[in-house]
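Data availability (excerpt). The following record was deposited with the supplementary files.
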Amino acid sequence: MGFLSFLWVLLAIGIGGSIGVWRARTIQMTAMPQLVALFHALIGLAAVLVAASALYGPQGFGLGLPDNIHGSTLFEMSLGAAIGAITFTGSVIAFLKLDGRMTGNPSFSRTGMRSILDSQFCSRSSSSRSSRPKPIWCFG
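Predicted structure:
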């Protein structure tokens, strides 16, 4: 199983490296900020994947068994996954904005966000199990 895992790692490095080399050679100099944002997105995604693999296969990282991972290690994995996810999301947004595929305008207006929140609160408060009355802003 050790050699097969090594081959998977080499395959992933080969695929990722070839994509990186291709993208680095085809990018124009004026689009370098987009390239940096794209590479940062991949770094964030890698952090999430490493944290997930450590959670689901802790014995491969020397962290013990899946049911017996120390609390500080779980906190560290959670923090790494959260920071990686934020990095990935922010870098993808930065790439899209720098490349002109996304505007800087907010995608939700205050009215739209209020409608979403109202629908969540109204649907929960109007359930048959709830003995509380609906909030005053919930109509119907």
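Summary of structural features: The mean pLDDT is 81.
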